[in-house]
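Q: I have 146 residues here and want to know how they pack in 3D. Can you give me a structure?
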Amino acid sequence: MDLRTLPARYVARGTTDEITACEHCGRPNLTHTVRMAIIGPDGDEDGEMFMGVTCAAKMSGRPVKDIRTEAARADRERAQAIRDGWRAWQDAHHNAFIAWRDSHVGERATAPDVRVWWDANREAIDAWRVAYEAAHPKPVERPPGY
């Protein structure tokens, strides 16, 4: 059996409002499109198309409701992955800063000691933040609501 003759499958990978024309039928001015991954006969992704939900359902051979559910699930998973990445960066930043601060103030410093040190070392703190963020850039995408 020649794999090149088998039809491609389409899987919803989320929605976008950046592309508002269906690449299948050409309909313009859609409020959003469904990003459909094209799965080749070998099981690998062979690209993607942006379609209206009706064309996406026709191309995949499934009901519109299933496409909407699959796209919404993909959107939620993507948003969660962005939140997780952002949170991991924030946690690493916080832990690195606390370790740096404690190396200057001491681990057993009281809150007033830290406040005095903080006020006296604003420039050093800002320089540390700039250096840290240059070495460890923030995630490119911010989570929804930031």
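Q: Anything worth noting?
A: Confidence is low (pLDDT under 50) at residues 1-6. The helical segments are 53-60, 64-105, 111-120, 122-135.
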